[in-house]
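Why do we care about 3D structure at all? Because function follows from shape, and shape follows, mostly, from sequence. That is the central idea of this module. The next example makes it concrete: a single protein chain, its amino acid sequence, and then its structure expressed as tokens.
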Amino acid sequence: MPKTKTLFFCQNCGHESAKWMGKCPSCNQWNTFVEEVVKKEPAGKIGWRSSDNSIRQSKPTPLQEVEAGNETRLITPDAELNRVLGGGIVPGSLILIGGEPGIGKSTLMLQLALQLYQLNVLYVSGEESEQQIKMRADRLVLKSNTPPSPLEGGVREVSGVNIYTETNTQNIFLAIRESKPDVVIVDSIQTLYSDLLDSTAGSIGQVRQCAGELMKFAKETNTPVFLVGHITKDGMLAGPKVLEHMVDTVLQFEGDQHLAYRILRTTKNRFGSTSEIGIYEMQGSGLREVSNPSEILISQKDAPLSGATIGATIEGNRPLLIEIQSLVSPASYGTPQRTPTGFDHKRLNMLLAVLEKRCGFRMGTQDVFVNMAGGIKVEDPAIDLAVCVSIVSSFEELPVSEKTCFAAEVGLGGELRAVNRIDQRIAEAEKLGFTKIYISKYNQKTVDNKSVKIDVRSFGKLTEVFQDLFD
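And the structure:
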């Protein structure tokens, strides 16, 4: 009887060790090693192999002999997904998408599979049955260029989509050899298990092993593979950290389940920018792409309200105009509250200190609530001016014109600092019908006043903006 082989894996980073250790030498975390049973199988029976009889032979290639060329990308009907992927799906890429439970990861992937009706797509599900996938597919409304092809009972193939409910990687690769798909979608990687390990599905070793087998398949066959991943209670992708290093692209699907809008954010991309976002609206018929997010981030009001201003921010290469709402009221208790939503708490405290020290507004006895409309999180310092004006507007009960927006960073001395890509911010404000924008005077030299129709006002200090606005 063969001896059972066990190894120890770090639950935080996936580091492998032959013996238990109190401190992981890779991530320096304590008490993270767990024991897992490893069962070695014959070399040709496990995982993906391009040939059942031999291993692909290769040799090193000198760099000067490698031919450089433009990588052909698969352009999907989903413009927002193309944006976050850097222009489309790269053949042979391994893409990991994570998000909160119920945020819409499976809906996004099934919607993508149905949109790629001209290709042979294999949708592997380890969480749902074929009937559950059928119910979701029936609710989705595809684009007008997609022929209607609803799922019928007992039929697995729909407009080029093959549904396969399986969790064993060996059976999945057998199905891949039979169907020869152009795109593979796996929902989710935590439900798969390999016969190479005796541990349960979702463990550190299983996640790493299954991802490694799928990566080998993607690279050898030049087939793009999408992996849906779970996240932990801390918001991190579940499994070893090496999983994020293995894949080519990591996408994070964010949003509040109680709000309609979702943000698809790129956190890693070997083939494009890592700061792009795509915005969707969750509807009963599926996810709708939002081509102009500034319109949804600015609420419609019958009359100007105090405490509401518009800030010009940049997410990736996309300029956005977002509404900042503030409420300032006398503190009912001894310690005033500072409650930001979608904005950094420490930066709010800094801006309040600047308003009190440099501008003379007594904020020490006031409760201050700041909200980014639309439920998104903003880290761009260019909205500092809009936040300060919003707070003062609520404090003094002086409304700001809804056709005015702001784009400047506020320093500790109360000065207005220049921000990047000011031309894109001004162009976005002009496109949406704004008549006035306040910027730093240090940005003025890069602005062509003759080519813009909007009134660009530049100042050097925060007090000068207040005098021009409220006097």
